[in-house]
């Protein structure tokens, strides 16, 4: 009897600590919502479509920041996805066994470097290089809207490059784990049919497709919320432009730059509303990502 | 060209691309480490560790207050996150299949994906707004929320590695669940859990965004929990954005120090995990 009583106390006490984690997630959402009421009530849907961000006259439209966040993350994924998948395939399928561990460790080291160090390196080392590359671009391309404007180094393209480097380790490590767990029978069947090594790898990728999409979305979640490095290299200019040369702005960057300057409540609430949207988007993206990875793992654990 | 040849060539090209992808990721890593060491190591001197920042534009000085500030911030974070995270991890490991556990596990994953700047906002709302003052405590709170999911998941994973025989032995000897967990199972996994905590601490020591409007930064010496406090990362940010060469130099030195702390901790963690794996092998 003593034992079952102890069991119950143990379960409830530790459960209360576990509930803190749950309450935190709910609490973050609730507090952000509560502290952005002024802006939500005043602007409503206009907040998301407005292009004017003018704290002095109290006019807040967040579209340029939303555009900047989505566009920079999209471009970053465009660059990082092939590289991250290439790394995952190389490490799990192609590399000599001796190199496997060190390479996995080194690529994951990219995730351990603080954002501020990426920013510092971006500002002082990468920006001059990117500016040189921008100057080298042929005139015919410079006339397209994607490369219009003066080559400054800092801007959307630069932010996308830094972001892509930062999300590579997240995508590649999950994709690698998924490839590793694809049942060996899948590849053996391909080889038995006379497939080349690459064709067998394609079969494995096809089998883990959902999970690999999950891995890419995990990277997307990181890119959307990345703050310091992006703030330091994107140019911080709220404009909506497809140009990679144009200095633009992101949701996280405007929060980082303006939050301590928010003198009146409406301004503060408008910034917190941006944070709320960022919270909702990243939760949504992470939810889908985890779900995809989870279902793939479930499928792989089942005997083929 | 025969079809078989074409397929072989495609295979070779694709395999080559994968090898190039690895190089493409290693180049920025090597470049970052190279510059951080080259610019940072040469900028380190005794003054960097012992002196306070000089007024704007004046050369010299150091980051003594920021180094101590970072230590205080991560100490607050650890004090808040480690007990909660470990007990939460114990619950998940003890009741792995309960519905509540899977919800909490999911919540921890969600929390892990929340951008650090949003966590900073949350800490601002609950710890700065009510008292109208930036504080070291608010900064530590933000970092605690950020490290919590890592502590939870490492604790759970490591507890699950503890051989079932240990638990069965303890229970057979008449131990209650509480005493079996705290005197037998947790001690067996303790080295691993500590390593996980160290890694989590190293990660949050490198955070900047959540500190901008919680700890806020401080040019002066302060170790009070109720006052704004300086941190290495924020000092690097401030100096990187300045127009003075000497401040740029110090920014690199700060970055060097940060990277060294993080690399050392992650290497220690890696070695000790390997040792644990060896010990667990029958």
Structure in a nutshell:
The complex is a heterodimer of chains A (304) and B (282). Chain A has 304 residues and is mainly α. Chain A has one domain (35-301): MetI-like (MetI-like fold), CATH 1.10.3720.10.
How large is the share of residues in beta strands of chain B? under 5%
The N- to C-terminal Cα distance of chain A equals 45 Å
Using the alpha-carbon principal axes, give the shape of chain B. globular
Q: Can you tell me the number of structural domains of chain A? A: 1
Rg of Cα set of chain B: 23 Å
CATH level 1 class label of chain B? Mainly Alpha
Average pLDDT over all residues of chain B: 91
Morphology call of chain A: flat
Classify the fold: give the CATH topology of chain B: MetI-like fold
Strand content of chain A: under 5%
Order of helices and strands of chain A: HHHEEHHHHHHHHHHH
Topology of helices and strands:
The complex is a heterodimer of chains A (304) and B (282).
Chain A: H1 2-34, H2 37-43, H3 46-49, E1 53-54, E2 59-60, H4 63-94, H5 97-112, H6 115-136, H7 139-142, H8 156-181, H9 184-192, H10 197-207, H11 209-225, H12 228-233, H13 251-258, H14 265-301
Antiparallel strand pairs in A: 1-2
Helix pairs in contact in A: 2-14, 4-8, 4-11, 4-13, 5-8, 8-11, 9-10, 11-14, 13-14
Chain B: H1 3-41, H2 46-50, H3 64-94, H4 99-113, H5 116-128, H6 136-161, H7 164-172, H8 177-205, H9 232-240, H10 245-280
Helix pairs in contact in B: 1-10, 3-6, 3-8, 3-9, 4-6, 5-6, 6-8, 7-8, 8-10, 9-10
Describe the structure.
The complex is a heterodimer of chains A (304) and B (282). In chain A, strands 1-2 form a two-stranded antiparallel ribbon. Chain A has a single domain, classed as Orthogonal Bundle (MetI-like fold). Chain A is 76% helix and 1% strand. With 304 residues, chain A is mostly helical. Chain B has a single domain, classed as MetI-like (MetI-like fold, Orthogonal Bundle), CATH 1.10.3720.10. The longest helix of chain B has 39 residues. Chain B is globular, with a radius of gyration of 23 Å. At the A-B interface, helix 1, helix 4, helix 5, helix 6 and helix 8 of A face helix 1, helix 3, helix 4, helix 5 and helix 6 of B.
């Amino acid at each position: 009897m003593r034992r079952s009583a102890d069991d119950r106390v143990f379960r409830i006490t530790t459960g209360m600590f576990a509930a803190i984690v749950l309450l935190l997630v709910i609490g973050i959402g609730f507090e952000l919502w509560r502290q952005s009421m002024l802006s939500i009530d005043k602007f409503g849907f206009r907040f998301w479509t407005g292009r004017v961000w003018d704290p002095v006259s109290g006019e807040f439209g967040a579209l340029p920041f939303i555009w900047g966040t989505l566009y920079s993350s999209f471009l970053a994924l465009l660059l990082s996805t092939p590289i991250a998948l290439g790394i995952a395939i190389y490490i799990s399928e192609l590399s000599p066994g001796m190199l496997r561990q060190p390479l996995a460790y080194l690529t994951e080291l990219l995730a351990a470097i603080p954002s501020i160090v990426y920013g510092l390196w971006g500002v002082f080392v990468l920006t001059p290089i990117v500016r040189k590359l921008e100057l080298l671009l042929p005139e015919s391309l410079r006339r397209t809207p994607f490369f219009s404007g003066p080559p400054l180094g800092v801007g959307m393209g630069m932010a996308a490059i830094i972001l892509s480097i930062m999300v590579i380790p997240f995508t590649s490590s999950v994709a690698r784990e998924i490839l590793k767990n694809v049942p060996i029978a899948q590849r053996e069947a391909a080889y038995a049919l006379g497939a080349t090594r690459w064709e067998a790898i394609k079969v494995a990728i096809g089998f883990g497709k959902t999970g690999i999409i999950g891995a890419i979305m995990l990277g997307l979640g990181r890119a959307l919320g990345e703050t310091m490095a992006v703030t330091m290299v994107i140019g911080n200019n709220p404009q909506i432009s497809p140009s990679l040369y144009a200095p633009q702005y992101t949701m996280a960057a405007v929060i980082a730059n303006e939050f301590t300057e928010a003198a009146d409540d409406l301004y503060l609430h408008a910034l917190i509303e941006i944070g709320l949207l960022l919270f909702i988007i990243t939760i949504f993206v992470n939810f889908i990502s985890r779900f995809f990875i989870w279902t793939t793992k479930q499928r792989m654990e089942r005997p083929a | 060209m025969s079809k078989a040849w074409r397929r072989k060539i495609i295979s070779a090209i694709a395999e080559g691309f994968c090898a190039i992808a690895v190089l493409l990721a290693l180049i920025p890593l090597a470049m970052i480490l190279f510059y951080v060491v080259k610019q940072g190591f040469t900028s380190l001197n005794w003054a960097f560790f012992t002196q306070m920042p000089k007024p704007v534009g004046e050369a010299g000085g150091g980051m003594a207050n920021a180094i101590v500030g970072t230590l205080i911030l991560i100490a607050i974070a650890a004090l808040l996150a480690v007990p909660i995270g470990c007990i939460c991890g114990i619950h998940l490991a003890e009741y792995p299949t309960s519905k509540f556990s899977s919800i909490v596990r999911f919540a921890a994953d969600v929390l892990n994906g929340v951008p650090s700047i949003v966590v900073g906002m949350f800490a601002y709302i609950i710890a700065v707004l009510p008292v109208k003052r930036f504080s070291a405590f608010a900064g530590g709170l933000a970092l605690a929320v950020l490290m919590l999911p890592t502590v939870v998941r490492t604790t759970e994973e490591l507890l699950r590695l503890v051989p079932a025989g240990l638990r069965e032995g303890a229970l057979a000897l008449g131990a209650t669940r509480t005493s079996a967990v705290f005197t037998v199972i947790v001690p067996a996994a303790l080295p691993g859990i500590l390593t996980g905590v160290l890694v989590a601490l190293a990660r949050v020591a490198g955070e900047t965004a959540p500190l901008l409007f919680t700890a806020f930064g401080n040019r002066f010496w302060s170790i009070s929990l109720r006052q704004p406090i300086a941190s290495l990362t924020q000092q690097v940010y401030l100096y990187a954005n300045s127009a003075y060469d000497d401040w740029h130099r110090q920014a690199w030195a700060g970055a060097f120090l940060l990277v060294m702390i993080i690399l050392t901790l992650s290497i220690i963690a890696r070695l000790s995990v390997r040792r644990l794996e060896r010990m667990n092998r029958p």
